[in-house]
Structures are given as C-alpha cells and as structure tokens.
Amino acid sequence: MTDPNLPPPIGYADAVAELEQLLAQLEHDDVDIDVLTTQVRRAAELIRLCRDRIAGARFDVEQIVADLSSLTDAVAADAVTPTDRDEPDED
Fold first, then answer.
1. Which numeric CATH code is attached to 12-79?
2. Between the CA atoms of 14, 15, 20 and 23, what dihedral angle is there, to the nearest 10 degrees?
3. Of the candidates 60, 46, 51, 57, which has an alpha carbon nearest to the alpha carbon of residue 14?
4. pTM to 2 decimals?
5. Residues 63, 75: Cα–Cα separation, whole Å
C-alpha cells in the first residue's frame, strides 16, 4: 500500500523532462543560491530515479532474453531428441 502523503511516483519520461527543465534554469547566471541548492538536489533525485529505472529495465530485458534463450534451447533439444516414431521397429 502506498503512503497517501507521498507524491505519486514520476515516470521516466516525466523525470527526464523535468531534469531538462532544471538544467535549462541552472544555465542562467542569475539563479538565486537558495533556489540553486534546491534545484541541484532535485536534479540529483531525478538522476537517481532515471538510473534506477534504466537498471530495472536492463534487468527485466536480460531476464526476458534469458527466458527466451532457455526456451529456444529446450525447443532445439526436443528437435534433436529422437521420438518413438523415429526409432526403427524391433520386430
């Protein structure tokens, strides 16, 4: 169950868009130092979130590929294994 006091999780695309917006703001010379600290902290959070999402996606893709590889190996093994109808009659 999620905590109702926490904001809803942000998606990867939204995190990247917010990060780009923050970086554009940080490029200006007139950024207030108090705002700068808050923006840099938020940018760091967004970078962590994006890295975690990428790592999670990478893990999921590797698992899917491994599962497919196992399935392909099993199908290939079945194709090579002789079946009863391929064996010569012993009569």
1. 1.10.287
2. 150
3. 46
4. 0.67
5. 18
